[in-house]
Amino acid sequence: MPRERPEVVLGVSGGIAAYKACELLRRFTESGHAVTVVPTAAALHFVGEATWSALSGRPAATEVWESVHQVPHVRIGRRADLVVVAPATADVLARAAHGLAADLLTNTLLTARCPVVYAPAMHTEMWEHPATRENVATLRRRGAVVVEPAVGRLTGADTGKGRLPEPEALFELCRRVLARGPRALEPDLAGRHVVISAGGTREPLDPVRYLGNRSSGKQGYALARTALARGARVTLIAANAALPDPAGAEVVPVGTAEELRQAVTKAASGADAVVMAAAVADFRPAARSGSKIKKREGQEPEPVRLVRNPDILAALSAARGAPGQLVVGFAAETDDVLANGRAKLARKGCDLLVVNRVGEGLAFGTEENEAVILDARGPETVVPRGPKDELADRVWDAVVARWSGAPPR
C-alpha cells in the first residue's frame, strides 16, 4: 500500500547547478512529499546545510558518522520511495556506476531499492567523455533513469550540452516515475528511441494570419514525459506548443505541416517508435500573400483556395524508418468516433491508433482525456477519462505489448 506521503531522497552533488535543486525541493515539499536532502561535502560549498534543512523541514543528512545509532547510511536508502540526484556531477555518476561508497550519498545509492533518477549537470566535454558515457550506460542498464542534460548556458561564458534541466520539468518526470511504483524499477522503454509529435500546425495566409487548430500539445508532451520516465530517449517534434520542455527530451520546434513532415521523417530514421500526436492541418492555402490581406470597404474578400498537405502518418506507415518500427497515430473525431477511427486505422496503415472525441471543452487544451486505442491486429483498449499522463502510459503499455507480443495491460 503506498504511503500517504511518499519518501523522497534528494541527493545534491557539488556543481554550480546545486542552487536549482532548491526549487526542485520546494516543488516536492509543496506537493506533499516528505524529502530528506543528502548533499555531498562539495555541494555544501554552493548551498549551505541550513538552506536544505529550512526548505525540507528536516535536518539535512550530510555525514555517515552523524546519528550512527540510526545507521543513516542504510536507513535513508531503505525508506525511500524515490532517490533523485540533481545535479549529478561526473564524479557522482562515476562513483555510483562503480559501486563506491565514499560518503552518505553514495552509501544511500547502494542501499536504495527504489527507483533512482540522475539529472546530470556538467561541462559539455565532461558529459561527452567516453568514461562518462560508459558510466551513464552502466547506470541505465541497471534500471536507473539518467536524464539527458539540456543545451544552454553553462558556467561562465560557455554554452553547450550539460545544463541541468529546469526544476519544473525534473519534478514532472520524477512524479511520473513515482506514479509507476514498483514497475519503475525496470524501465521498459530503456534503450529505445521514440519520436513524438505534439501541438498543432499553422498554415500561413499572410504574414499575420494562419489556418490552425485548437491543439495545445499537452497530450504529446505527456507522452514525452511518460516515455522519459520509462527510460526512453525522446525526440519531441513540437508544433507551436507553448509548454516547458520535458526534462531530457530533444525538442525540435516546427510551425507548418511541411516543417513537421521534414522533422519527423529525419528523426524517425532508426527510431523504435513514432507517435503522431500532433494535430496536423489537412489543408494549406494554395498561395501565401507576402503582405497583410487588407479589408476593403464594400468588397467581399477573395476566396481562399486550399490544397492538400502531405499525409505524414500514411507516409511513415508505408516507409518505416527502421526494421520493426512501430507507428502510432491519433484520430481526433467529433462524431461516429469509433467508426471513423477504424476506417482511418485501415487507411493509414499504422500499427496503433488512439481515437478520441474532441470539441468544445473536450481534449484540446484540457488536463484530461479519454480514448480508445485501436490495434491493427484487432484488440481495442478503452481508456476512461483521466489525466493525460495516464492515457500516455496506456499508449506506451500498448506499444511495449506489441514489442513483446503480449496483450495490453
Automatic annotation (TrEMBL):
Gene3D superfamilies: CoaB-like, Flavin prenyltransferase-like
Domain (DNA/pantothenate metabolism flavoprotein C-terminal) ranges: 189-400
Residues that hold CTP according to the record: D282, K292, P310, D311, I312, L313, F330, K344, K348
EC code: 4.1.1.36, 6.3.2.5
Cofactor needs: FMN; Mg(2+)
Keywords per UniProt: Decarboxylase, Flavoprotein, FMN, Ligase, Lyase, Magnesium, Metal-binding, Multifunctional enzyme
Segments for region (Phosphopantothenate--cysteine ligase): 194-409
Domain Flavoprotein, residue spans: 7-175
Cofactor note: Binds 1 FMN per subunit.
GO MF annotations, alphabetized: FMN binding; metal ion binding; phosphopantothenate--cysteine ligase activity; phosphopantothenoylcysteine decarboxylase activity
InterPro entries for this protein: CoaB-like_sf (IPR035929), CoaBC (IPR005252), DNA/pantothenate-metab_flavo_C (IPR007085), Flavin_trans-like (IPR036551), Flavoprotein (IPR003382)
Gene Ontology cellular component annotations, sorted alphabetically: phosphopantothenoylcysteine decarboxylase complex
Catalyzed reaction equations: (R)-4'-phosphopantothenate + L-cysteine + CTP = N-[(R)-4-phosphopantothenoyl]-L-cysteine + CMP + diphosphate + H(+); N-[(R)-4-phosphopantothenoyl]-L-cysteine + H(+) = (R)-4'-phosphopantetheine + CO2
Top-rank lineage group of the source organism: Bacteria
Record's protein name: Coenzyme A biosynthesis bifunctional protein CoaBC
Underlying gene: coaBC
